[in-house]
Amino acid sequence: MNAAEMPTTQDTAIVEALGRPLTVLYTQAVAGTAEPAVQRVLELRSFLALVEDQAAKICHRIRLAVDPAGDLYGADPQHLRFQTALLEAALETGRTYRRTLQELLAVTPAASPPNRRPVQFTQSKIAAISAPDGRLTARPGPAGEPVVEAGAGRHRR
Known about the structure:
Layout: H1 11-18, H2 22-31, H3 36-65, H4 77-107, E1 125-130, E2 136-141
Antiparallel strand pairs: 1-2
């Protein structure tokens, strides 16, 4: 299983902070369209996934070694000490990755939304109309009609 498919303790925080599911974020990263900050988040997440997976495997080996149904006196103390040292190293590394990931998420902007069709208004321009008493009023005009700015008159030559 690759790191992108492994669950981590920070997946919910990543999705909430970046506003996209992990599958979408990884797809963008593979396509090269993800922002650099998002790529860094995903790299840290991958490191964290591997460390958390290793910590779980080490815990499982320790549990098997001290299982009451097994031979407690057959367990090698040197092996248990080594597994414990591995577990401590994995947990410390995982804490460091989690802390760094949380700090990075705090300063990383949410992923930009997918490109959508630009909004088009049916009445995109406003024309100024001069009333007989000199006051200007505004009325929406068709998009193709030129806009007359308030105070600007048509100059004749």
